[in-house]
Amino acid sequence: MKSCFLLSIVFVYNICVGQDSIRNLSMKEAIQLASKNNIELKYKAFDISIQATEIQQAGVRPNPVFNTQLLALTDPSYHPDYALFTTSINRQDWFQLTKRVQLYGIRKEKIATEEFLHDASIANYCLEKRAILFNTAIAWLDTWYAQQNQILALQSIQSLDTLISHTLTTDTNPEERLRLLILDDQYDMLYLESVQNYQKSFESLELSIGNIQLLSIQQDSIFELKEIDVSVDSLLHHAYYLRHEIAYQKAMIHYYQNSISLSKSQVIPSPEIGLIANPQNTVPYIGLFLTQPLPVFDRNQFSIQKQSLLFQQSQSTYESTRLLIEKEVRMAYSNYQNQILKMAKMEDALLLSTQLLNTIRTNYLNDKKGYLDIFEAERTWYETLRLYYKTDYELKKYYLELLKASGHFDLM
Asked: Going by fewer Cβ within 10 Å, which terminus of the chain is more open, N or C?
């Protein structure tokens, strides 16, 4: 029958998959693999190490500067007797060693500034990681949903095959058999579409976990939906504490706040001091060197103003982030609670449609009238079960979104 042919499509596809593939991948395992092997996540991890080098660079002190000048007496008439052109009696030498001195704790403030940026880079990496792992979970859920639709379509085809075989052995109205054949062709197309969606979801999931080849995911045991009986205010409290957006914005506020202090410390430029050795015609001289730029025109005033504006902007961004998180948590909580009610309704509808189909199917196979009833019952059962899987899929998706919004997704 057609169902055997359609099964062969999936069988041939699975044979083509490599022997080193992963079987029965659970959502938790997919998240763990993505955390270790995701290419984009590995790329983002370098940002933390790069920023760590900036902390070390901020602590490096300025290099000393060496300066030398050699002056020779070029008029031979002034040379002492028997003195060569290159002798020290005909030369004046200048040796200078200086170093720029960072005043007012500038080095300490530079290090602190880069440390706040390092904290921000860690928080940003955690943001990227959460997004990638969440997308991995959704990719796994999409694959599971496509797999359920594939199984549903195959079950419907097999059920119709039984009815069509029954019409071949009994005196059946041609119109009745034609209706069943049309419905069977529709289920065939739905099955092929489900296979295509399943393979697309597979490829997306493989990419998320680091291009690891998959053979199958868990079919019977999806991740457990833990009951969320806490209030939305409690979820908000946890979200403000766990969400990395808050940590990132706090780090940026500290960064700009410290940048203001650093800019104020640079109002008076750092001096350059050093020692001078200046032998002149064998007469030794030593001295001190000092260069101090005078803050007459440039007092770093516009840099201070810029950092102050950025600090105010970061405070505003922090408040808007909190409002955005609050809206996201409330919406995710509402969607999840509403979906629970929908799921309860769908469970009742599925039970009733299954009972109806079993009753009408038994009567039909016992040569009782009602081929139109079996036709409609088959369609009703299929549409109800497909809607049930869709509702179940959305419930699990809203559950993941609620975990993400409240900051608990990282604790899965």
From this structure: N
